[in-house]
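Problem: given the chain below (318 residues), write out its structure.
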Amino acid sequence: MSRVLITGIAGTVGRLLAKRLHLDHEVIGLDRRNLPGKPKDIRVYPYDIRRKRCESIFRNHRIDAVFHLNVMHDFYRPQAELHSFNVGGSQRILECAARYGVRKVVFLSTANVYGARPDNPQFLTEESLLLAGETFSAMRSLVTADMLVTSFFWKNPEIETVILRPCHIVGTVRNGPTYYLSLPQIPTVLGFDPMIQLMHEEETIDALVAAIQPGRRGVYNVAGPPPATLSSIVRYLGKTRIPLPHFALQALTEAAWDFGVTRVPPPEFDFLRYQCVVDDARCRQELGFTPRLSLSETLDLLKRSPTYLSRSRPTLKP
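Solution.
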């Protein structure tokens, strides 16, 4: 049994990962948010990852592995706060890991760091440039955090460092893709029907667990079932599409964002025009991760999730 530290344990992915690991590992959590209903054998420290007191966890416990999940995707926050938390907090965790002899670091990034662009290839590999920040300023802190951990990987070869870049995660997780697909009626961009990759949150946990195995290190794109067109996903969900010209959709979403009506930031609608599909061959070959859910099973689980049901309403038939 090894001792595992999970930063961001109070988030959806953190809670699911802790539930999966705590029977075989000693799990310690780090999160300034509350974690109600946690198993009694999990100790949680309510610290901000940017604070120096986080070092006491590494000093007082021999940590074998760190799952760093505690990054902000709350793009409505000021960019200075996002940078301070995502970059400064990640730097703090990495410094402690190097100082106190942690053997494994797993960082959960996102495939969105590549950006949705008209010149993207059909499949993006791990060597593709991280260009999301060029048109989506709020993504810059996530891009910088990813690059920071990648640099840590090369500078600290004695630590097995894994960076996972999963495609769009859906389920009970409260994020842009889940919120978007939960809308009663789905706005799309007139004249565009991009390929979309989705994976269920439980499969994200499978990939994280695979990453902790000895000998695994490097950067891995993670994907679920094969991609499908946005129109086919909307049709399977039984929703009505509302095709809008790009300029009209942009103006509408910017107004909704400014008034706090939507949690999907306007630049994310670039994923409704241009595809951002990743090649996950390296993950399958080296991590041994194989998706176990089909796209229809993934969408069926999404339709039953509380997050989806709380936001969906009966839609008008076309």
